[in-house]
Every structure is written in C-alpha cells, then in structure tokens.
Amino acid sequence: MTTALAMLAAILLDAWLGEPRRAHPLVGFGLFAGRVEARLYRDRRMAGLLAWSLAVLPLVILSWLAARMLGSVAGWLAYAFDAVVLYFAVGLRSLGEHAVPVARALHDGDLVRARTAVGRMVSRDTPLLDETQVAAAATESVLENGNDAVFGALFWFVLCGAPGAVLYRLANTLDAMWGYRTARYERFGWAAARLDDALNYVPARLTATTYALLGNATRAWRCWQTQAPAWDSPNAGPVMAAGAGAIDVQLGGAAPYAGVWESRPLLGEGLPADADSIARALRLVRRGVALWLVLACLVALSWQVASHA
C-alpha cells in the first residue's frame, strides 16, 4: 500500500509544484556527468560503460542506503523519501507546460510563436516546419515523453522503489547526453543508449498498451504491429505508433535535422496533426497515469485483504 500511496503523493506533488525551477537534482547530475565524461572520455565502448557506471551506480546505491536507513527509523520517513524521489523523477506537469503553449499558438494562428514553443520540446529545425509539422512534432514529443518522463519512472518505482526510479531517470538523462550516433558518441555513448533501451523495453510496451486501452484500441494495436518495426528506436516506435493510432492522428514523415530533411516512417492513422491532436495526446497521458494509480491502489488493497484472510 505504501508504494501506491507514494505514487499518488508524487503525482500530486508534481501537479502542485511542477519541476523545480532552481536546483533541480537532474541539473546537478548533468553537471556531474559532464565532469565524469571530461575525465574518462575515450573513443571506446568500455570507457563509456565505465563512465556510465561511475555516474549512475553510486547514486543508486546511495538512494538504497537512504531508504533503508530512514525505514529503520520510522516507516513514514521511508514513505516520504520514496514520494519525494519519485516526484523528482516524473515530469507529468512539465509535459503540459511545454505542449500547451504550442497548441495555443497554433489556435491563435501564430506560427512563429508555435515554432519557438515547439523548439523547447524537440531537436529538429523548427523554423522550417509548417503548422501541421509543428503540431506533429509536439504530439510526438508528448506521446514519447509520456513513457520517458512518466510511465517509465512509475514502472521502475513499483518494481524497485526509490532506487529503481533513480536508476531509470539517471539512465534516461545519460542517454539524452551521450546516446547519439555522432563521431564523438558512437562508441563512448553506446552503453548509455543500450542500457536506456533495456530499461525502457517493458515500460514502453506497457505505455503503448495503456494508450491502446484508453483510445481507439483497434487502430492503436494495428499501428503498433505494422508501423513500429520500421521506426529506428525499438521503444519509441511502439509508444508513438500506438499513441498516434489511439488518438486517430497521422504522425511521422519527413523532418529536418541540422539542415537536412530526414525521411521517417509514418505513424498512426487519421487526420493530420493540429492543435487538437496535441491536447488529445496530453489527455491520453493523463488518463493513463490515472489508470496506473487506480490499478496500483487496487492491487495494494487486494494484497492487504489476501494477507489478512
């Protein structure tokens, strides 16, 4: 029951406070990881694995020790620690804070403002995007980050408590820093990318299933099965294909990166992306979180009843 209550408390804290504007732990971790990279960088896979291990594992162990120590003092301290750690690991409110300005700008017909807003969400060349492409970029980001910023952290918290949430979030952060197929990170970032893929494998498929259950299930399942295999990411493909199918929107297609238009597979089916598709994606993620919280509470209650039977 404490796991379910900690999940609920963390989501409520996120809804109330949002991401910390100052001194966010992940910002500090990013700075620390940058120093680790500066000292250990070599154009080799083992160097990247060593850097990843030294950046992540001590903090995971520290969170485990803290949870154990607080739990030995008082149960409520361990519960509070779990809730706060998970709060720092999820970013549900942040999804809306980034996506809503894009939708509002599109509603207002202000393409320049919409491009600027979506530039805070994606890495593509936003000045080259038209209205449909801006809306598609924001919708894709919401669906993908529903897994990366919310459901993935919840999954690993349920499985391993606060240390699991810490492991997942730090691994996700290092993938964003090092997991690029560039000359510098092709080998050094290999471990960060592969470990993030491994940690996201199950959560991504649970996220895709959640999207399907809460939207157009038949279309979501079909898009997942037929379109996701063509996507270059083994986890983003199922999440975005199922999400796009669930909300009846067409995503994917060509997108500009570093001045070059890259051809990407189509995702989903239905109408072209617009401001409303961004709103539907946000609602889908929020309803998914509500479903996970209800299920967690039901499982916890069932466990308590069974243990006292």
Structural description of this entry:
By secondary structure, the chain is mostly helical. The chain has one domain (2-308). Helices cover 75% and strands 5% of the residues. The longest helix has 48 residues, at 131-178. The protein is globular and about 55 Å long.
Write the layout of secondary structure elements.
Blueprint: H1 2-17, H2 25-40, H3 45-73, H4 75-89, H5 92-107, H6 111-118, H7 131-178, H8 185-188, H9 190-213, H10 217-227, H11 236-246, E1 249-252, E2 255-257, E3 260-262, E4 266-267, E5 271-272, H12 275-308
Parallel strand pairs: 1-5
Antiparallel strand pairs: 1-4, 2-3
Helix pairs in contact: 1-4, 1-12, 2-3, 2-7, 3-4, 3-7, 4-7, 5-6, 5-7, 5-12, 6-7, 7-9, 7-11, 7-12, 9-10, 9-11, 10-11
Order of SSEs, N→C?
A: HHHHHHHHHHHEEEEEH
* Overall number of structural domains: 1
Tally the helices: what do you get?
12
Low-confidence runs of at least 5 consecutive residues? none
Pathway: Cofactor biosynthesis; adenosylcobalamin biosynthesis
Transmembrane segments: 49-67, 149-171, 289-306
Family: Belongs to the CobD/CbiB family.
Protein name: Cobalamin biosynthesis protein CobD
